[in-house]
Amino acid sequence: MNPYIVAIFVPLIASLILWKSNNGKKRGLPVDVGGEPGYAVRSYRSISLAESSWEGVSTLAELFEQACKRFTYKRSLGTRKLITREMEVSQSGRSFEKLQLGDYEWVSYGEAFKAVCSFSSGLVHLGHKKDERVAIFSDTRAEWFIALQGCFRQNITVVTIYASLGEEALCHSLNETEVSTVICGHKELKKLIDISGQLDNVKRIIYIDEEGVSSEVSLAKKNTSWTITSFVEVETMGREKPIDAYLPLSADVAVIMYTSGSTGLPKGVMMTHGNVLATASAVMTIVPSIGTNDIYMAYLPLAHILELAAENVMVAAGVAIGYGSPLTLTDTSNKIKKGTKGDASVLRPTVMAAVPAILDRVRDGVRKKVDAKGGLSKKLFDAAYGRRLSAINGSWFGAWGFEKVLWDFLIFRQVRAVLGGRVRFLLSGGAPLYGDTQRFINICLGAPVVQGYGLTETCAGGTFSDYDDTSVGRVGAPVPCSYVKLIDWPEGGYLVTDSPMPRGEIVIGGPNVTPGYFKNEEKTKEVYKVDEKGMRWFYTGDIGRFHPDGCLEIIDRKKDIVKLQHGEYVSLGKVEAALIVSPYVDNIMVHADPFHSFCVALVVAAQHASEEWASKQGISYSDFSDLCQKEETVKKVHESLFLVAKQARLDKFEIPAKIKLIPETWTPEAGLVTAALKLKREVIRKAYADDLAKLYA
């Protein structure tokens, strides 16, 4: 046979065989469990539930120490050097901070362990007692992780708080847990000074050394009675006078994690060392061939369980962790000075985690660039994307083998460069990822984009997609540390006897399920249950269905369902996920009222797309806020919502009858979305109460 024919057709046939075998693979298996009757599934990887994958390791402190001894001379934690910090003023007069950052500077695992031991000893010398709690109130960075592990070595429980948390929630978190020592950055120190009179138990502040912190330190020393010490000073104290470790047990509480709750004050979820270790052990069996050759991009909030669990997995595998931020992630990120490379371009990671909002922005950014170029470039991109999509969907005429390599080189290589060009595995969690976004990122990056499903209350453990699963819109089979069960929710019309797939409320059981909420026994009893076999279950409030291969799909949420005046049920989250695909939408909150027969929406308009449309239409306006108020703009955006709603097959009553365009982006700092960029519905509703009233008028 002609060798050229072999070279073309063998990869093609092999790929199709692989696709077919993956398509019929059983990824989750039914299992008999105790507790409330339902339809339960376990991982196909293991009959028993995973608790620890490492001999002699039962806590996160032991896991870190073992990793540092195994990978002593390997790169561990990396931070970019700050070269300059400047303020730029836009044409509208607004000021923006711009950073020029250098290369990554690394410490080895051995050096990281010494830093952790020194910080641990320094805490004791500073006067912190074992029965007191430490809060870490800072953006994600190497010092955050060192402080966490330092506390663990003295069996000190860490309270994690989002850096974006508002004053009321911050006071509540620190006072409820009776925190005596707070570790923070300079921005967070300013927030603490502002509420110092409302904090009942804080005695010590450890500030992370960085440019600009001196003014806040002087202010704190002048206006408070706190002991103010730098992170470096604490390390130095401990290094000069080491103190023996007082290691925790598996059942000891490692972290009290305050969620940036979408309603009301945040709740503190108590997580034991055993809880988080179970999730880390389970994930280690799923991520393909993870090891010391990998580099992880750390930029999500470490106060979120997704990032905290991920970094412990990376440490266990000896992966190099490079720290960055969402505002410096790419070359075009908001805080990156023009001409300076973003974190991903410098680090060139192989493994990343992301939340759907960030992946939506990457997708929108790529599409905007392609559309702006137009002409041949756009035609080539569309052709390449179409061929890859056909291949993934099982078409014999899609781009496989040599053609795939060609398209990757000509087209997608440029897209991959946005995240450094070497990402081989990307996990999306924290919220449902829209199927189109998942497929788009998967094709453009040429790497698996897998979804995970879990909650703070289950230490992020629940389900996890296999890297070879080519489907979208699902969150995978149960991880090896969890059983996932569906139970009937008759009020919503979801039953485990439904055909063609069982449906119901998702309940998660296993060693990763946490003890409950700190000082909130009533809420704990409401959503946590222990069955007759001693298994602990968490009732998520999410609605799912199991596919025949054992993979879960999230289809609804009990709290997001509103019954309209004529009896129709509207799932707010489902509708929002469908409508946010519009190129004119940056964010959206659908609102439904039981006393009306229609729903409405607050739409954060996408500035670039809206202004580009206005320019083509010859519409004049003074600023973006003015453009959003124009009747023509509202009509255009509303038309785009109808179009995507039709494509998503939404019912007429699910499509917002009226909309209000919002020119300002909803940010965690403004308190309108959580740190994971989920909508705070009640806060938004109150903030835009007048606008909503007008929409219903």
UniProtKB/TrEMBL annotation:
Signal peptide interval: 1-24
Catalyzed reaction equations: a long-chain fatty acid + ATP + CoA = a long-chain fatty acyl-CoA + AMP + diphosphate; (E)-4-coumarate + ATP + CoA = (E)-4-coumaroyl-CoA + AMP + diphosphate
Record carries keyword Signal: yes
Cross-referenced PROSITE patterns: AMP_BINDING
Residues in AMP-dependent synthetase/ligase domain copies: 102-518
Keywords, alphabetical: ATP-binding, Ligase, Nucleotide-binding, Signal
GO MF annotation terms: 4-coumarate-CoA ligase activity; ATP binding; long-chain fatty acid-CoA ligase activity; trans-cinnamate-CoA ligase activity
Top EC class, one word: ligase
Gene Ontology biological-process entries: phenylpropanoid metabolic process
GO cellular component term, pick one: endoplasmic reticulum
Enzyme Commission number: 6.2.1.12
One Pfam family of this chain: AMP-binding
Keyword Ligase belongs to the record: yes
Superkingdom assignment: Eukaryota
Family: Belongs to the ATP-dependent AMP-binding enzyme family.
Protein name (database record): 4-coumarate--CoA ligase
Organism the protein comes from: Musa troglodytarum
